[in-house]
Write a structure and sequence with these properties.
- It is a single chain.
- This protein is mainly β.
- Helices cover about 5% and strands about 35% of the residues.
- The protein has helices at about 335-340, 360-365, 375-385, 390-395; strands at about 40-45, 55, 70-75, 85-90, 95-100, 105-110, 115, 125, 135-140, 150-155, 160-165, 170-175, 185-195, 210-215, 220-225, 230-235, 240-245, 250-255, 265-270, 275-280, 285-290, 295-300, 305, 315-320, 340-345, 355, 370-375, 405-415, 415-425, 435-440, 450.
- The strands form 3 sheets. It has a 17-stranded mixed sheet. The chain has an 11-stranded parallel sheet with strand order 8-10-12-14-16-18-20-22-24-26-31, with no helix packed on it.
- Helix 3 (about 375-385) runs antiparallel to helix 4.
- The termini are far apart.
Length: about 450
């Protein structure tokens, strides 16, 4: 066995567009040279009739003998991986890829990459408690993308992966890490883990597959997105932070799950499009967007922080805020109220947008009169108010159309002029605890066109 992270035959990263090596194995962030796969054998486990199977360098039968090279073990049509199966890859960088029987407890050793393929709609579980020497464990939907798969007994420090779940049917993929206590970090690689949906509301609808990926007991998921774009649900009882990097588009939904402590998504290292639908987040919640633009949808409550990913005009960002509520005050203290606003940083006027079409203020305001932008003269008055609360109240009462419940104005805090939107959910022309406040940090262009509907 050799360590994927340190083996001498790996020295330079894959060039863009070649992030996946032989048999779909992701080589992202792993060094390699021009010939990383030393000579080995390919053993097709479907050819064995006597079960359980034993493969090792010590077997007398040449058909069951692994080598010191980079061996590949496959089981493409028969679920010949079962309890009692022994596969010892010996030296080299070895791969298993194939089907397994329900509730199997095989014994893998010195086989660095394991790709488990479910078959059929029934829940299938593979136990790795008796296995050792592996470094990556993948759920692979190549055979059937509608299979519920659980892989348990995974050792800490293992790189996890999900690929080829593009069937529209909903799949449940659960990784159980031995000894995970809520403080660990896990590396998760995705490639066609569901279909990417530009609009997060489309995840799991129509042709958009959305496998449910569950990893409990882990605080931080570091997701590397390679190959083809992915769209999936995330669930974890200890999940606090999701970090995303890579070159492939990513769509993430947590609407169907209660992630009790999730409070941050950082996609600033993602050089691709993104979409998020985060409905069960903690407050405050922080989102750092990707580099190619996309849509973020969240239940906007006070003190959420969104940082758009591009300020140069190449990526269009949209924040879909489905609620803007829960201000607590005291409203007469500018600093406190400003801190309770939903902040949007790196907002590019006339390029990016804030979608408020699902807020109470938008749905109850009359068509064509939902957003009112103060005139230059009115805004001068707003800027002169002693407190942010007074400026917001003035903006709401200045609306020229009765029933307008979102007023856009400017106000200076600590010497910096920002654009604000007062979201008057109860329509009483006064900012109160039922309402919301959105701040475009450092934006001095005042226009209601930045705040749009669906």
């Amino acid at each position: 066995m050799q360590d994927l992270a340190t083996v001498d035959s790996f020295s330079t990263p894959n060039p863009p567009g070649e992030a996946f090596g032989k048999f779909g194995v992701s080589l992202a962030n792993q060094p390699q040279n021009s010939n990383p796969f030393l000579a080995g054998v390919t053993i097709n486990l479907d050819n064995f009739t006597a079960l359980p199977i034993t493969i090792s360098p010590n077997e007398a039968d040449p058909l069951a003998k692994s080598t010191n090279g980079n061996d590949t073990f496959i089981s493409p049509t028969k679920a010949n991986i079962q309890s009692g199966t022994i596969i010892n890859g010996g030296q080299g960088l070895d791969i298993f890829k194939g089907l397994f029987t329900t509730d199997a407890t095989p014994n893998f050793s010195n086989t660095e990459q394991l790709f488990f393929q479910g078959k059929g709609a029934a829940l299938q579980t593979v136990h790795l408690a008796q296995s050792s020497g592996y470094q990556q464990v993948w759920a692979d939907g190549t055979v059937s993308g509608d299979t519920d798969v659980t892989i348990d007994g995974i050792k800490q420090g293992t790189v996890l992966g999900v690929q080829n779940y593009t069937d529209p049917a909903d799949s449940s993929l659960t990784f159980k890490i031995t000894g995970a206590n809520g403080t660990q970090t896990v590396e998760l690689e995705v490639n066609a883990a569901g279909k990417f949906a530009a609009d997060p509301d489309s995840i799991g609808t129509g042709t958009f597959a959305d496998p449910d990926i569950t990893i409990n007991g882990v605080a931080v998921w570091n997701i590397c997105a390679e190959g083809t774009g992915s769209g999936f649900n995330v669930d974890g009882d200890s999940l606090t932070t999701i970090n995303i990097r890579g070159l492939a588009d990513v769509a993430i939904d947590s609407a169907d799950f209660a992630n009790p402590v999730l409070n941050k998504i950082d996609a600033s290292a993602l050089n691709a499009k993104y979409s998020f639908d985060i409905d069960t987040e903690q407050n405050p919640f922080t989102v750092l967007a990707g580099q190619k633009g996309g849509i973020m949808e969240l239940d906007g409550v006070f003190a959420d922080r969104l940082t758009f990913g591009d300020t140069k005009g190449t990526g269009v960002d949209t924040a879909q805020i489905t609620a803007a509520t829960e201000l607590t005050g005291p409203f007469t203290t500018t600093g406190v109220l400003d801190a309770q606003a939903i902040w949007v940083s790196n907002f590019v006027h006339a390029q990016d947008s804030i979608d408020l079409s699902e807020t109470v203020a938008w749905t109850t305001g009359p068509a064509g009169a939902r957003v009112y932008t103060l005139t230059t003269g009115q805004n001068t008055v707003a800027l002169s108010k002693a407190t942010l609360d007074a400026a917001a109240d003035f903006a709401l009462t200045s609306a020229s159309n009765p029933g307008t419940h979102i007023a856009v104005f400017q106000y200076s805090v600590n010497g910096v002029v920002n654009t604000y939107a007062a979201v008057d959910n109860n329509g009483n022309d006064t900012l109160d605890p039922l309402d919301g406040l959105i701040k475009l940090v450092g934006v001095s262009n005042i226009t209601g066109s930045d705040f749009v509907g669906g």
